[in-house]
Every structure is written in structure tokens, then in C-alpha cells.
Design brief:
mainly alpha; two-stranded antiparallel sheet; single chain; 2 strands; 139 residues
Length: 139
């Protein structure tokens, strides 16, 4: 099935992803790569700005989480920039499609870690801080 110039039947096959010399990018994929880069860099700058706002309001626990998310977006953006460059230049092995697959897996694993960190560590630290402030209020 061909949709948007992509043969979707090939995407779910192993030889498609393990091809060492995949050839040049189509215009659609160049736009897709560029869009992903813009989104990652944009989210990096947004999370950095929000981190500075949290530090100014002395919410350091949330600011640390924003720092972790900013590091996530920056790392994903820079690594995807390298992937895009090697794919655009059609460099064998370094321009392979499997790097995009590894990038997706690493990003998903890191995102799961961030979500887990937020719901378990940040929430617990905020509760502990609130309890300490209540106790400190009466001392």
C-alpha cells in the first residue's frame, strides 16, 4: 500500500530497517526530519524557559524535573540532527535507517524514565516538602 509516497508494506519488514545504504531521502522525509528537529529544539527552549521561571519562584524540585526534560529534548534533537545529516548525505552505515529505529527506542525508554521519575520521585518529594513546611510552621 502506497500512501504519501511511502510503501507502508516495506516499513514493517526487517530488511527495510537493516539496509546499510538506503539511498537519498525523499522530499516528504526531509520535511518530516526537519519538523521533528524543530519540535525537539522548540520543546528544549520552552522547558529551559519554564525551568528559569520555576527557579525564580523557588520551586527547585519542579525545576530539576524541567532540567531533566530539557536535557532529554536537547539530546534527542542533537542526535537526530546527526542522523538527519548522515541520511541527507547518503553516507553508508551512518545513514542507515536502523539509526532512526534506535533513536526512537532510546527516546521512548528515556521518556518512560522521565514519566516514572515525575510520578514517583517528584510527587513524593513535593509531599515531603509540604510535610516539612507544616512541621516547621509550628516550631
Amino acid at each position: 500500500m502506497v500512501f504519501l509516497g511511502i510503501d507502508w508494506g516495506k516499513i514493517f519488514s526487517v530488511p527495510f530497517w537493516l539496509e546499510v545504504n538506503p539511498g537519498e531521502l525523499s522530499d516528504l522525509f526531509e520535511k518530516f526530519f526537519f519538523g521533528v528537529l524543530i519540535i525537539n529544539y522548540g520543546l528544549y527552549f520552552v522547558s529551559r524557559a519554564y525551568q528559569k521561571r520555576l527557579i525564580a519562584s523557588r520551586e527547585f524540585i519542579k525545576a530539576k524535573f524541567c532540567q531533566k526534560t530539557a536535557n532529554f529534548f536537547l539530546t534527542m534533537a542533537v542526535s537526530f540532527t546527526f542522523i538527519f545529516f548522515f541520511r541527507y548525505e547518503a553516507i553508508p552505515f551512518l545513514g542507515g535507517r536502523f539509526w532512526v529505529f534506535f533513536w526512537l527506542i532510546a527516546g521512548l525508554a528515556w521518556l518512560i524514565y522521565l514519566i516514572r521519575y515525575y510520578f514517583f520521585h517528584v510527587k513524593n518529594q513535593l509531599k515531603e516538602l509540604e510535610q516539612k513546611q507544616k512541621i516547621k510552621k509550628y516550631m
